[in-house]
Amino acid sequence: MKPRKFYYEETHYFGSSYLIDWDANVGLRIQDSSSCIPFLIEPSTILHPLDTDWTRLKDSIEILALEPREPEVPVCDGFDVQCHITFRTRLLKFSIVNPDFEGFNEFRDLLNQFTVCSDYPDGLFEVDR
């Protein structure tokens, strides 16, 4: 089961930025950049997850039972996350600076494992360039 929409963008202020974006005609586009360089229109890394991979990811996210919420203490720096994931129905959607809700780190780890490939052998978020 492929998603109808899958978008995850993480921007670390004065640091790295990460993008995971599904395009049904192209595949799962993943890329990293710095805070001063925008993402490429055509990323060099495109993955083609199988339906079983998508189903496993969806089920794993559902098990986390995430309830995104703004942090209690507002912070002026850190990182910003934009996320919108829809399969048949909306699974998850949020836009939060410094997300710290229960299960966020596990969710991020799931996404990182989903992006493991030859270009990102430890996953997108473990880029060490």
Architecture overview:
The protein has 129 residues and is α+β, with helices and mostly antiparallel strands. 19% of the residues lie in helices and 33% in strands. A hairpin with a 3-residue loop joins strand 5 and strand 6. Helix 1 runs antiparallel to helix 2. It is globular, with a radius of gyration of 14 Å.
Defining key terms:
129 residues; 6 strands; six-stranded antiparallel beta sheet; alpha+beta
Please give a quick description of this structure.
This protein has 129 residues and is α+β, with helices and mostly antiparallel strands.
Oligomer: single chain
Task: Work out the helicity level.
Answer: 10-25%
Q: What fraction of residues sit in β-strands? A: 25-35%
Ranges where pLDDT stays below 50 over 5 or more residues in a row are none
Q: List the helices and strands in order.
A: EEEEHEEH
In total, how many beta strands?
A: 6
CA radius of gyration: 14 Å
Outline: globular
Briefly note the structural class of the backbone: alpha+beta
Give the SSE map.
Blueprint: E1 5-12, E2 16-23, E3 27-34, E4 45-47, H1 51-64, E5 79-86, E6 90-97, H2 104-114
Helix pairs in contact: 1-2
